[in-house]
Amino acid sequence: MYFNVFGEKVSRARYREMLNAAKNRRELIAAGLTSRRSLFKMGLLTAGGMLVVQGGLSARAQTNPPSSGSNSSPGTNQLCLPSNQTASPPTRAFVEPLVVMPLARKVSSLTPTPTENPNTGAGEVRAAPFQAPHIDPVRFPVVPGTLYQFNQRQFTARQSPDLPLQTLWGYDDGTGPRSPGPTYQAFYGKPQLTRNINSLPPVTQVNNTGFGMPSVTTHLHNAHNPSESDGNPCDFYGAGHFCDQYYPNVLAGFNSDHAPNGDINESLSTLWYHDHRVDFTSQNTYKGLIGMYCLFNQFDTGNEGSGFHLPSFPQFDIPLAFNDRVYDPETGDLVFDLFNLDGILGDKFLVNGKIQPFFEVQPRRYRFRMLDTGPSRFYEFFLTDLNHTSIANPYWLIGTDGNLLPNPVQITSVRIAPAERVEVIIDFRPFAGKTIYLENRLNQLNGQGPVDNFGPGNTSQECSANLGMNVPQIVPAGAGNLLLQFRVSGTAVADHSVDPATNPTFYQLPNTNVEPRITRTFKFDRLNGQWSINGQFMDCNQFRFAVQQNSVEQWLLMNLSGDWTHPIHIHLEEHQILSRNRVAPTLPADKGRKDVTQLHPNERVQLFFRFRDWLGKYPIHCHNVVHEDHAMMALWHVVAQGDDIRVP
Fold first, then answer.
1. What are 271-316's pLDDT values in tens digits?
2. Position 635 in a domain
3. Same domain, 144 and 266
4. Mean pLDDT across the chain, nearest whole number?
5. What whole-number distance in Å separates Cα of residue 444 and Cα of residue 63?
6. Is 148 in the same domain as 270?
7. Is residue 512 part of a domain?
8. CA-to-CA distance for 634 and 565, rounded, in angstroms?
């Protein structure tokens, strides 16, 4: 039997067509067709955004388009058709242990020594001088006490014992390249600097069928960072160049409404870093350029014997980076389908760089920092005991995106979109001596987003009706994607971490009862085959609007794209969700502070922002990174005196 990437049976003839189409796509990619601009230039995109059905190139293409006399319903969305991507080779699950990424290695000095202004003569490409030392050179010395040097390098690694070595891109802190990269352990009050050096091969030597663009810019996602160190998508640079990025590790408001130390209620905890090169974020992150960044303070200390008494880092506080991938059915090589503009879904599920690993845990509480790296899949995480699938196994949600909630919330599942994070505490004592699983039970049929009931016109629902199927939103326990196996020891151990059932208090949510200086509206839509914001495409030479430094704004996000769900990310400041379709948020994950908001079909979401401390340019974009790379992004900037543009 032959299958496509979604496990659907296909004929042998259809399978061969799919193989040939995939080869055609990879040949074009290897020949340098690597961006949306190339697709348009070569005439491979129609006005409606469909890839031409030429040689089966389009991910939406069908072998025999229905005629007017066929049984197909008029107007049936082509996404209802079987996937045009062949299934990956079979792999065994739970045969390799989870890799816990090592802590990033510090260096004592950098050569040449960092300078306040960009050192262009030495090959630095930083966009502007450091802002932090200009504000307070004593607090933020140009050369802080904590230094790192990271090289982006090409390397090979095995992601499953049943697949060949893969050619990946990763971060090397001096101990060898890896993906995900080393985990930063950072502390508020201790500024640090990372020198990011592009040591990737030239584009002519890029392996894995040619995807990936070896020019980079590293974004520390969700950090309250000055713009020159933000890793702006337009500030990319090629091999042999570097960028010194200054991370002040300072609370928002330190130079404005909460001077001098910032607002403790805006403390961040779980961040991540990834490549953000404009037009190529999806390819470069898919190829491996991601990593985690954990930030601590006097309350969230990383030691369960102090502060909030959360499980100790790193032994019982574990970052988990999730992604899904596709591999060539004949060679076993990692492949990226550039010709799928809706969003890429894989049929192999990786955690910390390994396909379906296992993790040996003790019967005690663990803190997990769970990140969806994308490119396009949403997850809903359940704890599953395959011997007792009718029993719901609760755990505790303690944080959303980068922040702790005011109090733990007991849940049986939590949903995250690409780039979102959640922090949870799982108490393994009830499972002593057992094996349980972290399972994704969210049903997603294509790059539009999950099968959902958030609004009318959802194509996944229409597809199921048109094809005579009953497609559930949440599949039964044990029928989803088993992502990670927990092997729980049977021996009791000491646990000095706080019990979430005692309802401990962490931080409070900042006040949102403040009159905004302006309300801006952002409409997310499709236009001439590209994803757009307010009818415009991404342009590195255009600022859409100017935010006034140290002001309050409300932003309205509106989804006009029909059937797609967009995870919207805004750089610099976190936000709070005031309403969804004019109703206050009800989901626990919506009630915390956020840097990514899921914008569901036909939805209107109202956000509250404070923009403080820093000046300069930042983007807003969809974090389904396929949409981002196909123009659903806009640049804005923070200036001393803002504008009054309400629909940028």
1. 999 999 999 999 999 999 999 999 999 999 999 999 999 999 999 9
2. yes
3. yes
4. 88
5. 23
6. yes
7. no
8. 18
Q: Give pLDDT, residue 61.
A: 45
Q: Which residues, at least 6 apart from 75, have a Cβ–Cβ distance to it below 8 Å?
A: none
Whether residues 219 and 331 fall in one domain: no
Taking the C-alpha atoms of residue 572 and residue 637, their distance in angstroms, rounded to an integer, is 10
Residue 636 CB-density burial (10 A; 0-12 exposed, 13-18 middle, 19+ buried): buried
**Could you write out the DSSP letters of every residue in 403-448?**
EEEEEEEEES-EEE-TT-EEEEEEE-GGGTT-EEEEEE-B---BTT
Q: How far apart are CA 430 and CA 28, in angstroms?
A: 53
Q: What percent of the chain has pLDDT over 90?
A: 77
Phi–psi pair at 356, nearest 5 degrees: 45, 65
- Tell me the sheet residues that pair with 361: 488
Q: Which of 296, 327, 347 is the last residue of a domain?
A: 296
Domain coverage including residue 564: 518-639
Cα distance from N-terminal residue to C-terminal residue, the chain? 52
Confidence of residue 446 (pLDDT cuts 50, 70, 90): confident
Q: How many CB atoms lie within 10 A of CB 2?
A: 17
Is residue 496 scored above 90 in pLDDT? yes
pLDDT of residue 456: 36
Assign 22 a pLDDT band (cuts: 50, 70, 90).
low
303 Cβ contact list (under 8 Å, min separation 6): 312, 313
Of 264, 296, 328, the one marking the end of a domain is 296
75 band by pLDDT with thresholds 50, 70 and 90: very low
Rounded CA-CA distance 64/66 in Å is 6
Residue 339 and residue 260 in one domain: no
- pLDDT of the residue at 43: 60
Q: Are 259 and 374 found together in one domain?
A: no
**Residues 481, 587 contacting (CB under 8 angstroms):** no
Domain count, the chain: 4
Q: Cα–Cα distance between 18 and 10 in angstroms, integer?
A: 10
> SS3 of 227, please?
helix
For residue 558, give the amino acid letter.
M
Domain contains 646: no
Q: How far apart are CA 438 and CA 412, in angstroms?
A: 11
| CATH code for the domain in which residue 447 is found | 2.60.40.420
Question: Within this chain, do residues 128 and 269 fall inside the same structural domain, yes or no?
Answer: yes
What the block records as the tokens of 21 is 């189409």
Which residues, 6+ apart, have CB-to-CB distance to 367 below 8 Å? Answer: 310, 311, 313, 316, 317, 318, 398, 423, 424, 425, 497
Whether residues 476 and 343 share a domain: the answer is yes
Same domain? For 345 and 219 the reply is no
Instruction: Note whether residue 553 is domain-resident.
Output: yes
State which H helix or E strand residue 462 sits in: helix 459-466
